[in-house]
Structure formats: C-alpha cells, structure tokens
Amino acid sequence: MKKIIITAVLCVIPAIAFAGNQNNVGTCGWGSKAMEGKSGVMPQAFAATTNGTSGSQTFGISSGTSGCTQDGTVTSTWKTAMFIDGNKERLARDMSIGNGETLDSLAHLIGVRDEDRAKFNRTMQENLSRIFPSENVSTDQIVVALKDVLASDRELAQYAASV
Fold this sequence. Notes:
This protein has helices at residues 2-18, 30-34, 41-54, 56-63, 78-97, 101-109, 117-126, 128-131, 139-151. The protein is mainly α and 163 residues long. It has two domains: 2-63, no CATH class; 78-162, no CATH class.
C-alpha cells in the first residue's frame, strides 16, 4: 500500500509543477468548467484530474459538449518560446531594421505566408518597443507581446494563435 501511495504522489507532483503559470488544462470538460476563472496550481491540478478521470474532456471533444468544440486546432507555444529564448538579441536587431534571417525564421515558425511577410516585418519594426520594452525582458513577456501585436492587427491577427 505504501508503494501505491508513493507512486501516486510521484505521478501528481510533475503535473502540479507544470501547472504553474498558464492554463495547462484546456477550456473544456467538467473540470475546466468547474474551475473556470480560478488560477493557480491546485485549480489546474483539480481540473486536469477531473477531466482525465471522468473522460469528460475526451467525450466533450468527440461530441461537441461540455464547452468543447470539434473545430479546434491543437497549438503549442513552446517552439516559439524556445526559438525566441535562443535568439533574443538577433531577433531584436532584425526587428529594429525590419528584416533579417532571424525575423524570417520567426515568421516561418509561426506560419506567416509569403504574401504577408512584408506586413509582418513592418509591424514587428513598428512595435519593437512594445515587444522588447527593456533589455532584460523575459521570453514569456516577448511571446505575450508578440501575440498581442499580431492580434491587434487586422491583417495579421490570424497568426496570433500560432505564437
């Protein structure tokens, strides 16, 4: 019995550790609905556990119920964040001049179509101080600002979800 409890605790600890800053659960399923609007590790862990053990999120996605839709896209920002984290200085330089290899790589990574590249580059240049407000800006802050800049532009808003 002791081994089962230790195993259960060791399985839950990583889930709680990853639940820290953002919504790691999703926006549908009974657990997500019960904890809607709450933040922190425990509400996310509860929502994930409820969604996982009840199967409500899987059923909701399959049936279009419990706040789930069937037309959603699976996205992840970890690739963008890793790219930005490893290229901050070069990316800031490229944004400041409105072109460059690093800026092109970012555009490619988030799926900016060729016909939108000039607008993307110009928008990044015009919003450099918003995306990089200080020398010590964190990667997370850059990602949020980049997403906000794209979302606020009518022509580029479609790319905000890919950041």
